[in-house]
Write a structure and sequence with these properties.
Elements: H1 5-35, H2 40-46, H3 53-64, H4 67-78, H5 89-110, H6 118-124, H7 126-158, H8 163-209, H9 217-220, H10 239-252, H11 257-265, H12 269-298, H13 321-329, H14 332-370, H15 376-400, H16 404-428, H17 434-450, E1 468-473, E2 480-485, H18 490-514, H19 572-578
Antiparallel strand pairs: 1-2
Length: about 600
């Protein structure tokens, strides 16, 4: 198969469009930044807090609807042993946005935080903030690497070009416009990218469905034609595994900087909630063509296509079912539209993750923990450097690491079992302290790593109830591999024990120090005796010892609205209700 000139032209046009929109948004950001009093660094991180409803919904939806989302949904619907019943991502992430909007968006936005790690550093100090930065950073970098790797494989299926070259070029473009425009560039390019995903996939579906090799998908949903029905089913012995994964998607999808970056960029707390709810609907809508493409793949007699007599599942190419359907069941010009959709999906997630990782490092590690006296210009340059460094790291991992998806799975689990229970504690449980936070971190990490990770071939040292040994045949060597599958919902149990450890150890240390059983001199983390006061959670200024982060100038909740579509949806009343922090906003802590 030679290089498709038309495909290359389509990709070049698409990338030029994305680059143009990114540079235009950067110029818009600079123009608005010249008029705003907000620091340039915060402007890059939270877009001047005037991201409107239209752009906000698109950018929040596009953050979830990445290359892994559309490829993974199609893959699970296609796989014989899974089917639609196991394609949990669309419903899981949609519910994640709903839960985030209901419980987390308002307190985070009302208090004017700049990153997700701000409340942790405010309450637990800079060292604990640094520890929590590690799983958050791992999640963002590995996620970017995983989707860049998927993009390279996709391009190699549809357009016969070098995988490495396609990954590097895509990453360079995403890094460049993120570097020059920050959140503005990411948000506005997300609008174009989401439109490309929707258009590209929906154009492809009718052509693929009408291909002579494809059976009626309504019949193959319940009857075995070329393989088992694509609706799938949940076996009784797998129900706890299914529940564990679903809880991970819903609750583990909340404590990500990519989500809170959009929440904190909203023009008010109410808007932050509305964005979450509308994006949840957008996630479900965007999953429909992926589900249909997976169903089409499961309903195809591949003998009748130029793909070959062996189905993708038997070639261990199930993860590539979406580009394979586009390439072999659609006319060439249609498959190029689909290619644009996949490229758009990847870039819309990669740029967000890279910006999120650099925002957390520049603010929470460099500015608040290393150099509290750093100038705003210095912070901007640190952000630019780390955007490039983290982008390069993700690109290198995509090219060099075979187990990048295993790293992504493990890091997303760590976000769930470590960061989520800490986020609950710091926002809603009055009285938790650094000792509890450290205990929660250790307990969550121990219980999760103890369960092993089959993708990285990490054997378990904790065998939870119901574990089984399974085997699979390696697709290249033909060797039989054995691995332990934990059917017990150990990830959710690890998360719950992590939360309980935080509360229990916090209250225990508080009692021991305040009752005098332990001398105050043993409070080596200075988190009980000298730091806490009665209304600590209601304050944005904490003046403490050498280890405490002083957030004396937490970003104010601004009333400013950009000249966006949001102006047609609301008036000043919305902002007077929710724009400023009030005692009601902190009700959950009392």
């Amino acid at each position: 198969m030679g290089i498709h000139v038309e495909g290359l032209v389509a990709i070049v046009i698409f990338y030029v469009l994305i680059l143009f929109v990114g540079i235009w948004a950067a110029w818009k950001n600079k123009a608005s930044g010249d008029k705003e009093s907000m620091d340039r660094s915060e402007n890059i991180m939270v877009g001047g807090r005037d991201i409107g409803l239209f752009v906000g919904v698109f950018t929040m939806t596009a953050t979830w609807v990445g290359g892994g989302y559309i490829n993974g949904t199609a893959e699970y619907v296609y796989l014989p042993d899974y089917g639609l019943a196991w394609a949990q991502a669309p419903f899981g992430y949609a519910l994640s946005l709903v839960v985030g909007g209901l419980f987390f968006a308002k307190p985070m936005r009302s208090r004017g935080y700049v990153t997700m790690l701000d409340p942790f550093q405010q309450l637990y100090g800079k060292r604990m903030g640094g520890l929590l930065f590690i799983p958050a950073l791992m999640g963002e970098i590995f996620w970017s690497a995983a989707i860049l790797s998927a993009l390279g494989a996709t391009l190699s299926v549809i357009v016969d070009i070098n995988i490495n070259m396609s990954v590097v070029i895509s990453a360079m473009i995403a890094i460049f416009y993120t570097l020059v425009g920050g959140l503005y560039s990411v948000a506005y390019t997300d609008v174009v990218q989401l439109f490309c995903i929707f258009l590209g996939l929906w154009i492809s579906v009718p052509f693929a469905m009408s291909n002579p090799a494809v059976s009626d998908i309504t019949v193959s949903a319940k009857e075995a034609i070329h393989q088992s029905p694509w609706l799938g089913k949940i076996e009784p012995e797998d129900k706890w595994l299914w529940i564990d994964n679903f809880c991970l998607l819903i609750l583990g999808g909340i404590p990500w900087q990519v989500y809170f970056q959009r929440v904190l960029s909203a023009s008010s707390a109410t808007y932050a909630q509305v964005l979450s709810f509308l994006a949840a609907f957008g996630c479900l809508v965007m999953a429909v063509p992926s589900v249909l493409i997976g169903a089409i793949g499961a309903s195809t007699d591949w003998n009748q296509t130029s793909y070959g007599s062996v189905a993708p599942k038997d070639k261990d190419q199930s993860d590539m079912i979406l580009p394979i359907v586009l390439q072999y069941l659609c006319p060439p010009y249609v498959s190029f539209f689909g290619l644009g959709a996949v490229s758009a999906a990847v870039m819309s997630s990669a740029d967000s993750s890279i910006l999120s990782a650099s925002s957390m490092f520049a603010r929470n590690i460099y500015q608040l923990a290393i150099r509290q006296s750093a100038s705003d210009n210095e912070i901007v340059w640190v952000m630019r450097i780390t955007i490039f460094v983290f982008g390069a790291m993700a690109t290198a991992m995509a090219l060099l690491t075979g187990s990048v998806y295993g790293l992504w799975y493990l890091s997303s689990d760590l976000v769930y079992v470590i960061i989520f229970p800490q986020l609950i504690s710091v926002l809603f449980i009055k009285g938790t302290n650094t000792y509890g936070s450290v205990a929660a971190y250790v307990v969550g990490l121990f219980l999760r790593i103890g369960g092993g990770e089959q993708y990285l071939k990490i054997p378990p040292f904790i065998y939870y109830p119901g574990w089984v040994v399974q085997e699979r045949v390696h697709h290249t060597t033909g060797e039989v591999e054995h691995f332990v599958q934990q059917r017990f919902p150990f990830k959710t149990v690890a998360m719950l024990f992590s939360f309980l450890a935080n509360v229990a150890v916090s209250y225990l240390t508080k009692y021991l120090f305040e009752s005098g059983i332990l001398s105050h001199k043993y409070d080596f983390l200075d988190s009980v005796v000298s730091k806490h006061s009665k209304d600590i959670m209601d304050k944005t200024t904490l003046v403490g010892n050498h280890d405490n982060i002083i957030l004396s100038e937490m970003a104010p909740v601004k009333q400013a609205l950009g000249a966006t579509l949001v102006g047609t949806f609301a008036h000043n009343k919305v902002h007077s209700d929710d724009g400023e922090s009030s005692p009601e906003d902190f009700h959950c802590d009392d």
